[in-house]
Design goal:
This protein has 4 helices and no strands. It is mostly helical and 86 residues long. The longest helix is centred in the last third of the chain and has 18 residues. The relative contact order is 0.05.
Length: 86
Amino acid sequence: MNIEVSDEVGLHLKQLAKERNLTIEELISAMLERYDVVRNGITLADLAEMAAKAGLSTAEPVDTSERSREILNTEYADYLKQRRTS
């Protein structure tokens, strides 16, 4: 079976596979396995562990929840203004 993807997606998959020392097929299989786990009920602790293993964690504190009101009042408002004028 052949699957066509955009050049952008193909390059992204190629880069991720290279970083993880996998073939693209192995990478996609691993992604599908993880998707299946998420779809079938995964805990937040499991998601946090997967994020850390994937290099999505940060040593710096993240203050998104503390800044949520500020983000809604500024960034989201700016987005809505831009969307309205376009």
